[in-house]
Specification:
By secondary structure, the chain is of the alpha+beta class. The chain has one domain: Alpha-Beta Plaits (2-Layer Sandwich). The chain has two helices and four strands, in the order βαββαβ. A two-stranded antiparallel sheet has the order 1-4. Strands 2-3 form a two-stranded antiparallel ribbon. A hairpin with a 2-residue loop joins β2 and β3. The mean pLDDT is 92.
């Protein structure tokens, strides 16, 4: 997607469902056998989906920057 949500390569995705099970906000679901960001507003940028993806189909192209208050 490139807009601050995970990029999912549906050619590589095997539809295992690990990302859906692991996503704490429900932003990623399996739709038609492939991982899909169904609720981009819910994504909290935790990168758990990228970490758990066994096929390497999910990439989180965003950078998390921590700023001191």
């Amino acid at each position: 997607m490139g807009n601050g949500t995970p990029d999912i390569d549906t050619e590589i995705c095997i539809g295992c469902g690990d990302c859906e099970s692991w996503c704490p906000t429900g932003a990623v679901k399996i739709v038609n056998g492939k991982a899909t960001v169904v609720n981009p507003e819910a994504c909290n940028y935790c990168t758990d989906c990228e970490t758990i993806c066994r096929s390497g189909a999910i990439r989180c192209p965003f950078e998390i920057v921590l700023v001191a208050k």
